[in-house]
Amino acid sequence: MKHKKALYAVFACLLVLLPVLSACTQDTEEPAPTTTNPPNNEEALLPETPGIDATLVYASQCASCHGTNRQGGVGPGLTKNITIAYLSQWVPTHRTGVQLDPRLANSLINWLKVNSTVSTVPQPTEPAFVYALNCTVCHGATRSGGNGGPSIKPDNLTRLTEGFLAIFLQGHYKGVDLVQDQRDALAEWLKATP
Fold first, then answer.
1. What Pfam families does its record include (predicted)?
2. Taking the model in full, what pTM does it have?
């Protein structure tokens, strides 16, 4: 009985001392920077850690779906202009970005932004035309769903705002290839047109 009490006393002391001892043995290195939203100027690049090769991060994490030259494949192409704000929200929640160290994510986001292209050719913004050209393959001509795409009639979009839809389209399959005016017009049309 005396041995059990002594054993319990030792365990109690260890439980009390364990947090203190572990605090003494932790590394004193600065924590890794987290992926942060950029300031209001969405073109401002995120802070980076020197020595990270973003092309290698892309090749190991993204190329299998988005193509070796960001041209697209299983996933959409990533050559068009995508905002830093969108990439900052998307990469940490994307399939391979969830486990990605924030330092690598920041370098990848900056690399994608710097290597994106802004289209200078005027693009049609008539939403019915944009929908027919880009969305009917998956969502059907009547928006009732089709080859893998769900129904996107206004009744199915009630909980989503126009702003959310416009942002969502930046990373959605064919939406990546649209310019912002097309995304905005399409989002408004999807919410309003039966």
1. Cytochrome_CBB3
2. 0.48
Per the domain annotation, does 6 fall within a domain?
A: no
- The two counts, helices (H) then strands (E), for the chain are 9, 0
The CATH number of the domain where 103 resides is what? 1.10.760.10
Last residue of a domain, one of 68, 88, 114: 114
Tens-digit pLDDT profile for residues 106-124: 999 999 989 887 656 667 8
Instruction: Tell the burial category of 36 from Cβ atoms under 10 Å away from its Cβ (0-12, 13-18, 19+).
Output: exposed
Do residue 102 and residue 152 come from a single domain?
A: no
Can you tell me the distance from the alpha carbon of 33 to that of 101, in angstroms, rounded to the nearest whole number?
9
**Residue 178 sits in which domain range?**
127-192
Q: For 129-178, how does the pLDDT look when each residue is reduced to its tens digit (9 = 90+)?
A: 888 888 888 888 899 887 778 999 888 888 989 989 888 888 887 787 78
Residue 39 lies in a domain: no
Same domain, 133 and 181: yes
Cβ atoms 113, 45 nearer than 8 A: yes
Query: Taking each helix axis from N to C terminus, what angle separates 102-114 and 54-61, rounded to the nearest 10 degrees?
Result: 100
Tokens of 193: 């047109």
Tell me whether residue 162 is in a domain. Answer: yes
